[in-house]
Design goal:
The protein has seven helices and eleven strands. The protein is of the alpha+beta class. The protein has three domains: 41 residues; 157 residues, EvaA sugar 2,3-dehydratase subunit (Nucleoside Triphosphate Pyrophosphohydrolase); 51 residues, no CATH class. The strands form two sheets. Strands 5, 6, 7, 8, 9, 10 and 11 form a seven-stranded mixed beta sheet that branches. Helix 1 crosses helix 2.
Length: 260
């Protein structure tokens, strides 16, 4: 089926699906109803699932990052407080490695005796912005996903949201460039974006101290965003198909789409 015919079939099918829900007495908002429909079939007008697979596997074979494990004492730009032992960045941003003592955790494996452990604390506690851009192509919604390398990732590269940046990154505390697409989430109204989801999401409290991230899903007008290198437009069906692969999709994508 050519892209134009596929787009027509999508719009017709979506209308029929919404009518069916209404006639059946189901109360489902338009965004969630469309999410259910677009998850039933691969409606992508741009890339087949085989295209997506080849794109991602190529990024994993040729990652844009080299990782070398070094001692904490050899870290440049990080310092250890001689009194507390806390490890922090010289800018005062990013995160701090500190210690906590846990007592009386009656519901945990160790019982009442508790334990001591190091824990990572984000400066300011709030972590960052996690955002996915949604854009329609002839009426069919697609999502801009990045093949993002991070030093702790399994296999180094994972499918990640359009924007995945700490507030320290957004403030350019690293003296580098502003994260790409930040303006679509910091000021969505300036680009006529519709905010479909905006909520604080919790993170793993076993290793991160009171950390939360702001998750967002923003739809932009058709033709606003092109597909830059390292990114790909995926259908919701394809994103869910990628969840069947071994550690392809990072937890931030899962967190953002979980409300749908």
């Amino acid at each position: 089926m050519n892209p134009q015919s596929l787009a027509r079939a999508y719009r017709t099918g979506l209308d029929s699906y919404r009518h069916y829900l209404s006639q059946s007495g189901w109360t489902v908002d338009d965004v969630r109803a469309e999410h259910q429909f677009e998850s039933l079939k691969d409606w992508s007008l741009l890339h087949s699932w085989d295209d997506v697979r080849a794109w991602f596997e190529d990024w994993r074979k040729n990652p844009p990052m080299v990782i070398q494990e070094i001692g904490l004492n050899d870290l440049e730009g990080w310092r250890r407080d001689p009194d507390t032992g806390n490890v922090s960045h010289e800018s005062g941003e990013f995160f701090v490695v500190k210690g906590v003592r846990v007592r009386n955790p009656v519901m945990r494996e160790v019982g009442a005796r508790g334990w001591d452990q190091p824990i990572l604390e984000q400066v300011g506690l709030d972590g960052g912005l996690l955002g996915i851009i949604r854009q329609r192509f002839e009426g069919v919604p697609l999502y801009l996903i990045e093949a993002k390398a991070a030093p702790g990732n399994y296999e180094l590269v994972q499918m990640s949201p359009t924007l995945q940046a700490t507030f320290s990154n957004l403030k350019q505390a690293h003296t580098g460039r502003k994260p790409r697409f930040a303006e679509f989430f910091e000021q969505p109204r300036t680009i006529e974006g519709a905010v479909l989801y905006d909520q604080w999401l919790s993170e793993d409290g076993g290793r991160l101290h009171k950390k939360r991230n702001r998750g967002m899903l923003v739809e932009v007008p058709e033709g606003t965003v092109e597909e830059p290198d390292g990114f790909i437009w995926m259908s919701m069906f394809q994103i869910k198909q990628a969840l069947y692969e071994n550690a392809w999709v990072n937890p931030h994508i899962r967190g953002i789409i979980a409300h749908l």
